[in-house]
Specification:
single chain, alpha/beta, Rossmann fold, seven-stranded mixed β-sheet, 9 helices
């Protein structure tokens, strides 16, 4: 029996988990820190807020969100891949031991993006980074994100996309097809995973279609913001 997309992606992330953070930094040319900060601004986080970081991975988004909500807030990180989630738990524990930021406000748990184990209207903001391309159903995932967001709260998605500037497109195509699989395979030992990455970006719907899916999920004030010439894009919307 053929594996489902969810199973294939889970196994792929389990295989590349040990080098995931390093390759994120290398392959994004360190741009991912600025992209994450821009996405968190769209979430409009305040001290004391309750935040869900969906597909938390190694918990970088969760840690950044925790610094903004402070000791009175709560950040829940959920991921469906246990090996990468364990790395996130280790990172959070180290930050707690070093008394850095508000890491004590973070809770990590296993869970699936299209069946979240939370009641309706639980969180002030729901954020997701680099994962909407990987879910079995974009519509189901966005609907779940909207469901668990309280009225007046924000849903924010950050993902890798295709560049909008024409001069950048051939360079990016060359980078995707040659540099990314070579560097990713060399460091992780899993070249196939870094062939999947550009394939998933090419297959991801354009920003206007993702915005329409956000509206269908019940969100209002939907907008999108291209970053670094469209190498990444933020979508945000408010639950009425």
């Amino acid at each position: 029996m053929a594996q489902s997309k969810e199973q294939r992606v889970r196994e792929m992330f389990a295989q590349i988990a040990p080098t995931y953070d390093l390759l994120n930094t290398l392959l994004s040319c360190n741009l991912h820190h600025g992209w994450r900060a821009a996405a968190l601004r769209c979430a409009r986080l305040r001290p004391g807020a309750r935040v869900l970081d969906l597909a938390t991975g190694t918990a970088d988004f969760a840690l950044a969100a925790a610094r903004q909500v402070g000791d009175g807030g709560l950040v829940v990180g959920v991921d469906f891949c246990l090996p990468i989630l364990r790395l996130g738990q280790t990172k959070v524990r180290r930050r707690v031991a070093a008394r850095r930021g508000a890491a004590r406000t973070i809770r990590l748990a296993a869970g699936s993006a299209d069946h979240l184990p939370f009641p309706d209207d639980t969180f002030d903001a729901v954020i997701m980074g680099y994962a909407l391309r990987n879910v079995p159903s974009i519509a189901a995932c966005l609907a779940e994100m909207a469901r668990v967001t309280r009225p007046g709260g924000w849903v924010v998605n950050l993902d890798l996309t295709r560049p909008v500037r024409r001069w950048l497109q051939p360079l990016y195509h060359l980078y995707q097809e040659s540099v990314m699989p070579f560097v990713g395979g060399l460091i992780s030992g899993r070249r196939s995973a870094y062939r999947y990455l550009p394939e998933s970006i090419r297959g991801f719907p354009p920003p206007d279609r993702i915005a329409e899916e956000c509206r269908r999920a019940g969100l209002e004030q939907v907008s999108w913001q291209p970053l670094s010439g469209g190498l990444a894009t933020i979508h945000s919307g408010c639950k009425p």
